[in-house]
Amino acid sequence: MCSINKPHRIFGIRRDRGGAREGFALIAVLIALAILTALGILVFTLSTQDVRISSKTVGEKKAFSAAESGISWLAQNFDPENLGSSAVTDKRIDDTFTALIDPNSTFTISTPAVPSYGPPALPSPGYAVGGSEVWGQTRHVAQVTGKSSNYSSRVDIDAGLGYGPVDITTLYR
Q1: What is the DSSP string of 53-97?
Q2: pLDDT(70) > 70
Q3: For the chain, domain boundaries
Q4: Alpha-carbon distance 142 to 146, whole Å?
């Protein structure tokens, strides 16, 4: 004989008087745990994504700084009589060009060349001495690449150079 007041178990859930009141608490805890786990995974994903983005930004800034140092080096060492002497490969940044020394940042400069478009020289108004002489600047282009090996980042800059004043009477015509 079965008593109405006596609780019994069906599939591991204690049942009282036809209801599943104690089994509801277990289901509510499991749902709350699933929601908190999903929220934790979301927070972890967003925080690691922020770290990746900021790391990439730092790497790009270091590579850009290396490229700027390369442009400064090129401006100081440019020799239009010997264009090959202006080319360098994987030169480390030293304290001459920047206060922030990073031994893992380097720059590379391609051999400067006369641009394939436009005139080879540009006249400079105000430099005429008299007569038929035209004074101006010769044009050159070089690619400067800055790299940061710590962050595996790279920045390429096409640099334009003007050298002068030089007599461009025969070049300009």
Answers
A1: HHHHHHHHHHHHHHHHHHHHHHHHH--TT-GGGG-EEEEEP-TTT
A2: yes
A3: 10-172
A4: 13
